[in-house]
Specification:
globular, alpha+beta, four-stranded mixed β-sheet, 21% helix, single chain, 209 residues, Nucleoside Triphosphate Pyrophosphohydrolase, disordered N terminus, 4 helices
Length: 209
């Protein structure tokens, strides 16, 4: 039987010190009013209070979150989709992406990893056997709560019979672009979608080591 000196010593780990900047800038939510509820978005007017007691009204779009996929085929080409984007008033070339589904009964949000697989198949007709998460980012934190989960998908195979298809309001054209061409297009300013720019540039940095 080990003596007391042989037993592992339990160490108390203190929580990290509060971020002074976070404490200075934090605003407390005191009121939130829904002014519009759409299919998956809520537009709210929210009132917040600062540490000095001053109050401010914010127009906020509450979003369930989304996924985006940087998908590479065996030839090293990036799978992109071109589709019409009404707010932009034009079609845009984008990496496959979509909103997290919400369970209609429990309200629970879809797992981002499962959503990424669904969106890739729906938008491109392909599945992937290798997945890696690149990271997360806020798409427009000045007014929207959308948190985007970004993945890399490789070892692609055609979904074949029974594949998941796009939503009825989506018309998508599949475009294959070599990674170097995609990087050049991003650097020239020919790619105008933010998540696609982030995905392409992160992929390029990853491949260059």
């Amino acid at each position: 039987m080990p003596g007391m000196s042989d037993l592992p010593v339990a160490r108390h780990i203190s929580p990290p010190d509060p971020d002074p900047a976070e404490e200075r800038l934090a605003e407390r939510l005191v009121d939130s009013t829904i002014v519009h509820r759409g299919r998956y978005l809520e537009v709210r007017v929210e009132t917040t209070e600062r540490a000095d007691g001053s109050r401010h009204r914010r127009d906020v779009v509450r979003h369930p979150g989304a996924v985006a996929v940087v998908a590479l085929d065996d030839a090293g080409r990036l799978l992109l989709v071109r589709q019409w984007r009404q707010p932009a008033g034009r079609s845009l070339l984008e990496i496959p992406a979509g909103t997290l589904d919400r369970d209609p009964v429990t309200g629970a949000l879809e797992d981002p990893e499962l959503a990424s697989r669904r969106e890739l198949e729906e938008e491109t007709g392909y599945r992937a056997t290798s997945w890696e998460k690149l990271g997360t980012f806020w798409t427009a934190p000045g007014f929207a709560s959308e948190l985007m989960h970004l993945y890399v998908a490789t070892d692609l195979v055609a979904a074949g019979h029974g594949r998941l298809t796009p939503d009825v309001d989506e018309v998508l054209e599949l475009v294959r672009l070599p990674v170097d061409d995609a990087l050049a297009a991003a650097e020239r300013g020919d790619i105008h979608d933010a998540k696609t720019l982030i995905g392409i540039l992160l992929l390029g940095r990853r491949q260059r080591g």
